Prior knowledge:
With 62 residues, the chain is mainly alpha-helical. It has a single domain, classed as Glutathione S-transferase Yfyf (Class Pi), Chain A, domain 2 (Up-down Bundle). The protein is built from three helices and no strands. The chain starts with a helix and ends with a helix.
Amino acid sequence: MNNILLEREYLAGDYSIADxxxxxxxxxxxxxxxxxxxxxxxxxxxxxxxxxASRKKRHGRR
Length: 62
């Protein structure tokens, strides 16, 4: 995943169902004691999607 994100902003190039489906799995990184900082591009992607989700929630969008 990190290697894919080295070349792209999102998993399939543009934001897509691939990102939506993968995001919940990555949110479990703490539970499984994965240091997300070891995966720089996954961390960037995760933070961007988390920010996007937060922004939608504030504006009442799902």
